[in-house]
Design goal:
single chain, 296 residues, mainly beta, 2 helices, elongated
Length: 296
Amino acid sequence: MIALVVVGALATTYGILSARRHVDRARVTGRVAQVVIDSGIGDVTVLGSNRTDVVVTHRYHYVFGRPSLGRRLANAKLQLSSRCPRLDVACTVSTRILVPEGTQLVVRVKAGGVDVRRLYGPIDVRTHGGSIVITDSTGPVTARSGTGLVKLKHARGTATLRTDKGDVVLDDVLARSRITVQEGDIRGTCLAGGELDGFVESGIVTVSFTGTPARVRVRTRVGGVALQVPSGAYTIHAVADQGRARVTGVRRDPAALGRLDVRAGAGDVVIGGGTPTSAREVSRLRCGSRAGRPRG
């Protein structure tokens, strides 16, 4: 009899928890030039499209109190917010929003990941705990994560990226990039040129360019650096304070326009020259030219 009572209580509790999952959708038809999202706990996804309206979807779960959702449009600025009750540790609110592809975006998240795709306006994203992935962008990007991966893919423009604990990953990027990592690595593949200024407190840097960079400046306190660039002449400064510095496949020329300035505090520095020479090699690297004006 006691066992039946316990099972019944568990079933009732599970039913209550399951019932408290909700979806809230809204369509904004007024002019929106900028979207500002302030989220407490939960992931945020922003998708650019060729539509002229904005569609907001909140999916939330709670146990003790319904989360508060805010939405305000004024002067073409759409402000969205979500907050869970302080005592409801099971509460989460995920936000998914479809916006015009030229929308300016500002996102602040306390705990959760951020995924942004197909936007060519300015993007400014910060999360205290969670990953940030930005794909297909052509405007200036600012992204900072307290704990989590920061990834920029198929991008053109300028980028300021930072994570206190986690990696920064660049894939098919042509930008003027400034990267700061406290604990983690910087990894870059298929970089089409541009400029890279990177600093790592503790971690390694591995970066490969398929296009000749105008300037690369990398510093690490603890960790090595491996840099691959197209063959040619560069102004080169390579120093390993507690390791070895090796330069192959490129020519040193103080008058060259391309500048490679690399210094590792504790670790080796390796600079190599050469680019993929066949379609098969390029395909293996998965380099492409997808970045540009985002598609609808």
